[in-house]
């Protein structure tokens, strides 16, 4: 009897240590700097933990933070709740109509084995008084945050009609000054900045991290040999391969949507040109041939073409071309600096860095109407990267002499800054959906 | 002392060691806003591959130019102005007189704009200097271009005076 209580307590500790915001894990804090006027009012009741609500509360906090971060939900404070139901049967809908909740989330966590848990949740429509969806997950204790993000994705999709991107990863580079010079870390964390893992540690610059479409590999540029080289690294075991170390620069890697090819930039033949490396045959093909700078290739989601930056008109502007280099077409005409294009997964939007009034900000182009919308008004924005659902753009900027990451919704209505505790943060890349 | 003033002091000391006694004229591109006595020739101590001082064949004027191991560029440009050209020509002459000496041209950009574009820009700047060397008869085999883009600034500020110093090619004999 005592032993089983002890066991349960230990399990609770494990679960708590995995969930609680402890300083070592909270590498960044997310601050919503601009939200929408009215979000969908939702009440998230702390999940029960075999009757004790503590661990369940931590899990619901993750869900609440996710939904709030999207800018599309208003979470009703727990103090207003008139009851604490944990399943649909216990819900008194009138109590939730009274506090003006449109939707309600209830759930429970139950220990299923020594390190496995069963998490159940239900999403309810308060007005209709019915259950919209419900799931049960069987998981390991270490995966509770991931399950919380998955639950956020389910709720988000059910209520907005769009796929959620909470259960995804972000890659970024941190830079710290040490006595031995600068230290660069390439890191991968959950989309909310938790669980950061270092992928590479170097005293030379790291840049241009790019995800493989299966989210299992990262390509990046490392200066570890005192010049730029491209590596592809497997995330599971850290095994990596140097795929481009030609004379001159080797940079701007971008995986094709099928993962079989890598577009990259090299100056091996004199000028900076865009090439495609076939990752299966190792054949390399040159796509561009111009005396100007051609760089920053990014694939169209159908894999049949690329967008890229070129200075062929005298200033950096954005162009598209077919994967054999034919059909080059200029896409941007306004302003004197448009660079680093990236196209959303549905092919409708292109995000880029544009200069206006001496500032370098994130802008988005509607590829159908060619209309350009400025999304930020910060000064030194870089490296914009779409969430896989195309709703948010993660980018790097500078705040009070410090490199920080920030995110903005593709319509510019929601903004958030991700504050890291120390050092500069740069070069973010949002992962594809995890499969 | 904050990091910036430390940096300036280090640059100042390095500059004094490098060009001690030289009456170096101030270049436009070298950060007029940096204040008196700041020499932007910075780490210009690298001469021959063995660190030997220059031979007597150098006139005072070209020794002065040779002591400058950085050439500077305008925004989004890889063209050498007259001052930069003079420095490049002096180094070309040195390389012609020392045909076994290898040189690394390290191109850099300021932080504005995108990192990848700046990496390409740094490469073009290095190539502009290489083109001058090659045109004057230096063997291309002895020249290596490296670009760091905006990754290795010499001045960490986010203003015009820092940006001017960071848009540069470093002529290095020490790699």
How would you describe this structure to a colleague?
The complex is a heterodimer of chains A (435) and B (175). With 435 residues, chain A is mainly beta. Chain A has two domains: 2-160, TolB, N-terminal domain (Rossmann fold); 169-430, TolB, C-terminal domain (Neuraminidase, 6 Propeller), CATH 2.120.10. Chain A contains four helices and 31 strands. Chain A has helices at residues 2-19, 54-69, 93-98, 144-160; strands at residues 28-34, 40-44, 48-49, 73-75, 103-111, 116-125, 130-140, 169-178, 181-190, 197-202, 206-211, 217-222, 229-234, 240-244, 250-255, 261-266, 273-278, 284-286, 294-299, 305-310, 317-322, 329-330, 338-343, 349-356, 359-366, 372-374, 382-386, 392-399, 402-409, 415-420, 424-430. In chain A, strands 2, 3, 4, 5, 6 and 7 form a six-stranded mixed beta sheet that branches. The longest helix of chain A has 18 residues, at 2-19. In chain B, 42% of the residues are buried. Chain B is an alpha+beta fold and 175 residues long. The radius of gyration of chain B is 15 Å and the shape is globular. Chain B has one domain (47-172): 2-Layer Sandwich (60s Ribosomal Protein L30, Chain: A). In chain B, helix 4 links the parallel strand 2 and strand 3. In chain B, helix 2 (60-67) packs across helix 3. In chain B, strands 1-4-2-3 form a four-stranded mixed beta sheet. Chain B is built from five helices and four strands. The A-B interface holds A 177, 205, 207-208, 221, 223, 226-228, 247-249, 251-252, 265, 267, 270, 272, 293, 295-296, 309, 311, 315-316, 337, 339-340, 353, 355, 360, 379-380, 382-383, 398, 401, 427 and B 3, 76, 111-117, 119-121, 123-124, 127, 145-149, 151-152, 158, 175.
Structural class assignment of chain A: mainly beta
- In the CATH scheme, the class of the largest domain in chain A would be Mainly Beta
- Radius of gyration of chain B (CA) equals 15 Å
**Individual helix count of chain B:** 5
Mean pLDDT across the residues of chain B is 75
Task: Report the CATH architecture of chain B.
Answer: 2-Layer Sandwich
* Quaternary structure: heterodimer
Within CATH, the superfamily of the largest domain in chain A carries the name: TolB, C-terminal domain
Count interface residues per chain for the largest interface.
Answer: A-B, 38 and 24 residues
CATH level 3 topology of the largest domain in chain A: Neuraminidase
Strand content of chain A: over 45%
**Could you give the count of β-strands of chain A?**
31
Strand count, sense and barrel status of the largest sheet of chain A are: 6 strands, mixed
The total beta strand count of chain B reads 4
Question: From the alpha-carbon coordinates, what is the Rg of chain A to the nearest angstrom?
Answer: 23 Å
Strand order of the largest sheet of chain B: 1-4-2-3
Distance between the termini of chain B: 32 Å
- Helix share of residues of chain A? 10-25%
């Amino acid at each position: 009897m005592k032993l089983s209580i002890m066991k349960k307590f230990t399990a609770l500790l494990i679960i708590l240590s995995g969930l609680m915001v402890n300083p070592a894990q909270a590498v960044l804090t997310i601050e919503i700097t601009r939200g929408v006027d009215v979000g969908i009012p939702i009440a998230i009741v702390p999940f029960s933990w075999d009757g004790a609500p503590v661990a369940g509360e931590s899990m619901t906090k993750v869900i609440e933070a996710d939904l709030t971060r999207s800018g599309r939900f208003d979470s009703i404070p727990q103090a207003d709740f008139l009851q604490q139901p944990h399943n649909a049967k216990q819900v008194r809908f009138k109590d939730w109509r009274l506090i003006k909740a449109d939707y309600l989330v209830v759930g429970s966590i139950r220990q299923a084995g020594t390190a496995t848990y069963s998490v159940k949740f239900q999403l309810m429509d308060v007005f209709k008084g019915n259950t919209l969806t419900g799931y049960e997950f069987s998981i390991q204790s270490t995966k509770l945050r991931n399950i919380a993000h998955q639950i956020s994705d389910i709720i988000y999709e059910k209520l907005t009609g769009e796929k959620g991107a909470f259960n995804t990863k972000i890659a970024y580079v941190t830079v710290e000054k040490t006595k031995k010079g600068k230290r660069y870390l390439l890191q991968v964390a959950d989309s909310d900045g938790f669980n950061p893992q270092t992928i590479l540690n170097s005293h030379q610059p790291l840049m241009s991290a790019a995800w493989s479409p299966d989210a299992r590999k990262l390509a990046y540029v490392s200066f570890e040999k005192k010049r730029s080289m491209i590596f592809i690294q497997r995330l599971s075991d850290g095994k990596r391969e140097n795929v481009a170390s030609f004379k001159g620069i080797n940079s701007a890697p971008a995986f094709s949507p099928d993962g079989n090819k890598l577009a990259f930039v090299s100056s091996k033949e004199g000028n900076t040109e865009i090439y495609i490396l076939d990752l299966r045959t190792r054949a390399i093909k040159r796509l561009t041939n111009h005396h100007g700078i051609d760089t920053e290739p990014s694939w169209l989601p159908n894999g049949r073409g690329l967008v890229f930056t070129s200075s062929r008109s005298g200033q950096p502007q954005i162009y598209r071309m077919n994967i054999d280099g034919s059909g080059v077409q200029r896409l941007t005409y306004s302003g004197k600096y448009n660079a680093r294009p990236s196209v959303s997964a549905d092919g409708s939007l292109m995000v880029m860095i544009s200069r206006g009034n001496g500032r370098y900000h994130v802008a988005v182009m509607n590829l159908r109407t060619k209309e350009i919308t400025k999304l930020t008004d910060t000064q030194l924005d870089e490296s914009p990267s779409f969430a896989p659902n195309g709703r948010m753009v993660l980018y790097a900027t500078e705040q009070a002499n410090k490199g920080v990451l920030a995110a903005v919704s593709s319509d510019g209505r929601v903004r958030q800054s991700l504050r890291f505790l120390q050092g500069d943060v740069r070069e973010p890349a949002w992962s594809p959906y995890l499969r | 002392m904050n990091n910036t003033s430390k940096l300036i002091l280090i640059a100042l000391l390095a500059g004094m060691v490098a060009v001690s006694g030289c009456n170096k004229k101030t270049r436009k591109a070298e950060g007029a806003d940096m204040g008196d006595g700041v020499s932007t020739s910075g780490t210009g101590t690298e001469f021959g591959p063995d660190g030997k001082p220059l031979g007597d064949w150098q006139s005072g004027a070209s020794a002065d130019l040779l002591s400058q191991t950085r050439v500077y560029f305008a925004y989004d440009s890889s063209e050498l102005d007259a001052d930069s050209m003079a420095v490049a020509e002096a180094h070309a002459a040195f390389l012609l007189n020392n045909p076994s000496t290898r040189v690394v041209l390290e191109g850099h950009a300021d932080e504005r704009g995108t990192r990848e574009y700046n990496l390409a820009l740094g490469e073009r700047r290095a190539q502009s200097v290489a083109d001058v060397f090659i045109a004057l008869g230096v063997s291309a085999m002895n020249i290596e271009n490296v670009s760091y883009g905006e990754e290795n600034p010499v001045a960490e500020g986010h203003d015009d005076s820092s940006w001017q110093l960071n848009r540069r090619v470093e002529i290095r004999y020490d790699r």
